[in-house]
């Protein structure tokens, strides 16, 4: 007699527990990947247009940037300084293109990898083009938008030869 009562109580408890669970959040990865890809393309256009304010606006306030041949920076003021110096270099032009965008199942973080091509005048005033790759980490913000929280890029070209020791 006790067995049916215990079984009924277990079933009721299990049913209650299942009913109280919140449903799994919708999988928004495809939409998030598309949003990040669009932001990355807009960002490239802003840099190519030499718009420092817009270029820097894609970073979070605490973003970490690892530019080639320079120290890592982690303040928006320092990020702005790097971009302003690059964009205002005579002969600056170029941009980048995402080749892969992926968002975590959690929907709050993603990354972009791709290639870039930038041209700037060298010390003699002649145009010099650099081609390379980049990796960005994007984080969803409290307003639902995305900001870049980490950015690194480096050249595919060989490093210049070091002077010979005498």
Describe the model.
The protein has 166 residues and is an alpha+beta fold. It has one domain (26-155): Nuclear Transport Factor 2, Chain: A (Roll), CATH 3.10.450. The chain contains four helices and five strands, in the order αααβαββββ. It has helices at residues 2-20, 29-48, 52-57, 76-87, and strands at residues 59-66, 93-103, 109-121, 127-140, 146-155. A five-stranded mixed β-sheet has the order 1-5-4-3-2. The chain is elongated and about 95 Å long. The model has no long low-confidence stretch (mean pLDDT 90).
Features of this protein?
elongated; 166 residues; Nuclear Transport Factor 2, Chain: A; alpha+beta; 4 helices
DSSP helix fraction = 25-40%
CATH class: Alpha Beta
Work out the radius of gyration: 24 Å
> What profile does the largest beta sheet have?
5 strands, mixed
Regions with little confidence, pLDDT below 50 for 5+ residues: none
Through-space gap between termini? 99 Å
Write down the secondary-structure element order: HHHEHEEEE
User: At CATH's second level, what is the architecture?
Assistant: Roll
Which term fits the overall shape?
Answer: elongated
Number of domains: 1
Structural class: alpha+beta
Query: Strand-residue fraction?
Result: 25-35%
Strand order of the largest sheet: 1-5-4-3-2
Number of helices: 4
CATH fold topology:
Nuclear Transport Factor 2, Chain: A
SS elements, strand count = 5
Mean pLDDT: 90
């Amino acid at each position: 007699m006790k067995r049916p009562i215990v079984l009924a109580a277990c079933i009721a408890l299990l049913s209650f527990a299942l009913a109280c669970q919140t449903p799994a959040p919708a999988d928004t990865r495809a939409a998030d990947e598309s949003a990040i890809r669009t932001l990355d393309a807009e960002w490239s256009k802003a840099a190519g247009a030499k718009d420092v304010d817009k270029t820097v606006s894609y970073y979070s306030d605490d973003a970490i940037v690892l530019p080639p041949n320079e120290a890592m920076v982690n303040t928006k003021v320092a990020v702005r300084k790097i971009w302003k110096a690059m964009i205002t270099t005579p002969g600056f032009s170029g941009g980048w293109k995402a080749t892969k965008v992926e968002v975590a199942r959690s929907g709050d973080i993603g990354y972009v990898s791709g290639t870039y091509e930038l041209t700037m005048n060298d010390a003699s005033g002649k145009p010099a083009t650099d081609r390379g790759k980049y990796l960005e980490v994007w984080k969803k913000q409290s307003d639902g938008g995305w900001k870049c929280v980490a950015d690194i890029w480096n050249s595919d070209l060989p490093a210049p030869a070091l002077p010979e020791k005498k």
